[in-house]
Amino acid sequence: MTSTAITGIGELTTNDDELGTLADAALVVEDDRIAWVGPSGSAPEADHHVDVAGRAVLPGWVDSHTHLVFAGDRTAEFAARMAGQPYEAGGIAVTVEATRSASDDELAANLRRHIDEAAAQGTTCLETKTGYGLTVAEELRAARLAHAADEVTFLGAHLVPPGTTAESYVDLVCGEMLDAVAPHVGWCDVFCEQGAFDADQSRRILEAAKARGLGLRVHGNQLGPGPGVRLAVEVGAASVDHCTYLTESDVDALAGSGTVATLLPACDLSTRQPLPDARALLDAGATVALASNCNPGSSYTSSMAFCVTTAVLQMRMTVAEAVRAATWGGARALRRETGDGAVGVLRPGARADVHVLDAPSTTWLAYRPGVPLTHAVWRRGTRIR
Ligand code: NIG
Q1: Tell me, what's the ipTM?
Q2: 88 and 54, same structural domain?
Q3: Ligand 1: residues within 6 Å at CB?
Q4: Do 188 and 68 share a domain, yes or no?
Q5: Is 67 marked as binding a ligand?
Q6: Are 246 and 301 contained in the same domain?
Q7: Which atom of ligand 1 is nearest to the CA of 298?
Q8: Do 174 and 313 have their domain in common?
Q9: Which atom of ligand 1 has the smallest separation from the CA of 89?
Q10: 320-344 CB burial, b ≥16 within 10 A, e <16
C-alpha cells in the first residue's frame, strides 16, 4: 500500500453532504482510494507529500456523454454550419462510413488519444458510446473497443442506416444486435428525435435493453420539442441527454423523477441551437449534469471546463452548481456517485480522482474563461499530470 498526502488546499470541493467545501484542507490518497479528508494541519502521515500551495481541489470531471469510437473528420460540415447551414442528424452517416472503413487499431488509438486529451484537462471518468457502426458486426466491434472508457453505452439506435426502413432496423436492434452487444455494455441509449427514432420505436428498443439487464439513457429534445424526456422518465432512464427544447411539463416530469437532465452546452453552441434552460430545471428540483458530448459532428470538444464556463456565463448556473453538475451530476447520471469507489466525490472510500486547479477557487473556471487551469490530476490514485 502506498499513500500520498495532498496538503495546503485553499478550497476543497468534496460534493459530500457532510464534508461540504473546506478551506485550508488536506486529503490522503491510499492506493486508488481517498483515505482521509480534513483540515490541513491534522493530515495523517503518508509515504509521499504534495503541498498544493493554496490551490483549489475538486473531484475529477465525470464526462457522462461522449461518442468516441469513430474515425474521420467533419471539419467541412462544421465550417458550412458556421456559414449558415443547419445541423442535421444525417451528418452521422458520414462518420458511420469512415468508422466502418477504419481498422480496430485505428479506432482504438483514436479513442485512447481522446481519453488522454480529456484526462490532461481533469476528466477522470468518462462514458462513451457505440453508434457509428449500425450493423451487428460493427456495433459489436465498437462495444468491444469502447472498453478503454469507464462506462460503455450501446447506441445502435443512433440513425436508421440509409437503405433500411425504420421498422426493420428497430427489429434488428431489438433482436440480433442487442443479443450480440448486451454482454459487452452497461447501458443502452436511443436517439429519440424527428429524423431518427420516434417514441414507439425508442420505447421498444429501451424495453428490449431493459429485459437484458442494461441501464437506460435517452438522447432527447435536442433539435426540437419532442417525446424524449417523457419517455426517459416513463422507462426509468438514468439520464436524458441534450434537453435543449423543454416544455414546462418536461421540466416537471424531470423534477419528479430519478432521471438526470444531462445538458451538453458545447453541442448547442456548435450546432447553433439555443442553450438549455438550466435555471428552470434546477429551480424545479431536477438533477442536472453537464457533459461534453465529444464527437466529430455536433460537439468536437473534450473540455469539461468549457462546459462549466458556458453554463455559468450563459446558462445562469452558479459556479457551485456547474462544478457539481460536471462532477457529482455526471456520476449520478452513470449511477456511480455512491458506495465504495464512487466518483464525482472526495470522501473516504471514493475513487482517488483528484483535480488540482491553478487557481485559488473554482470560481476562476468562469472568472478566467478559456484559460487552461488544470494544474495536477490523479486518476485512481495515480498522478497522471
Ligand atoms: O449527441 N444526437 C445525436 N448524436 C450526437 C451527434 C453525433 C454526430 O453528429 O456525429 C449528439 O449530438
Answers
A1: 0.98
A2: no
A3: 67, 91-92, 95, 191, 219, 222, 267, 293, 295-299
A4: yes
A5: yes
A6: yes
A7: 9
A8: yes
A9: 9
A10: ebbbbbbbbbbbbbbbbbeeeebbb
Which of 333, 356, 372 corresponds to the end of one domain? Answer: 333
Q: Is the pLDDT of residue 222 over 90?
A: yes
Res 325: pLDDT: 99
Q: Residues 169, 142: one domain?
A: yes
Find out whether 272 is annotated in a ligand binding site.
Answer: no
Give yes or no for a contact between 101 and 95, defined as CB atoms under 8 angstroms apart.
Answer: no
* Structural domain includes residue 339: no
- 278 lies in the same domain as 309: yes
Are the C-beta atoms of 128 and 152 separated by less than 8 Å?
A: yes
CATH value at residue 276? 3.20.20.140
Query: Ligand 1, atom 1: nearest CA belongs to which residue?
Result: 293
98-108 pLDDT tens trace: 999 999 999 99
Which atom of ligand 1 is the closest one to the Cα of 70?
10
Structure confidence by residue, pLDDT tens digits, 341-353: 999 999 999 999 9
Rounded to 5°, angle at Cα 326 from 197 and 304:
85
pLDDT tier at 89, thresholds 50, 70, 90: confident
CA dihedral 173, 156, 281, 122 (to 10 degrees): 150
Give distance in angstroms: CA of 20 to centre of ligand 1: 36
Q: Are residues 42 and 167 in the same domain?
A: no
The annotation status of 48 as a binding-site residue, yes or no, is no
Domains in the chain: how many in total? Answer: 2
Does 338 map to a domain?
Answer: no
Question: Are 158 and 191 within 8 A, CB to CB?
Answer: yes
Predicted local distance difference test score (pLDDT) of residue 384: 97
pTM, two decimal places: 0.98
